[in-house]
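TA notes, week 10

Several of you asked for a full example with nothing omitted. So below is the full record: structure tokens for the whole chain, then the designed sequence directly under it. When grading your own attempts, check the secondary structure regions first.
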């Protein structure tokens, strides 16, 4: 990808007047945030994963997590009042978000989904998060998350 894409995420950020920078990188299937961080020369901890999950009833939700951490689904279920939470299958995640897995952004999703953010992400000086296409991240101040999304703060990070 050599041209910066226009996505529902970037259109929403522009419409809300949120300043951001655009970052293209060479996408590697199953490379994850490790590849993004390496390609952009940034700390993987500040590259934020957008994970589409579902509770025991199949209700979808998004979790924003540090690139070098994973989600404790048991802790997440406890904190959101669910019996269980699990990652969605890729095709289900694509249907809920309107994005392709590997290019999922929390901004401009097809359906309005509850968004849960690992609390410590909001303390970072800058984050890099998917801009709505594989190989495309946007860099922004984490305060932009709460300016655009209806965030619920959680503490569910565990080492990868």
């Amino acid at each position: 990808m050599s041209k910066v894409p226009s996505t529902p995420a970037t259109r929403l950020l522009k419409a809300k007047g949120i300043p951001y920078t655009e970052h293209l990188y060479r996408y590697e299937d199953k490379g994850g945030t490790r590849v993004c961080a390496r390609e952009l020369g940034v700390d993987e901890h500040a590259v934020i994963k957008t994970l589409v999950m579902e509770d025991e009833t199949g209700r979808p939700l998004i979790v924003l997590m540090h690139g070098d951490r994973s989600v404790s689904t048991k802790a997440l279920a406890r904190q959101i009042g669910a019996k269980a939470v699990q990652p969605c299958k890729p095709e289900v995640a694509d249907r809920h978000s309107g994005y392709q897995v590997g290019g999922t952004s929390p901004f401009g999703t097809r359906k309005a989904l509850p968004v849960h953010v690992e609390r410590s992400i909001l303390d970072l000086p800058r984050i890099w998060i998917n801009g709505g296409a594989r190989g495309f991240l946007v860099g922004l101040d984490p305060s932009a998350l709460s300016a655009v999304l209806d965030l619920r703060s959680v503490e569910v990070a565990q080492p990868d």
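Residues 21-159 form a domain with the YbaK protein fold (CATH 3.90.960.10). Use that as a sanity check on your answer.
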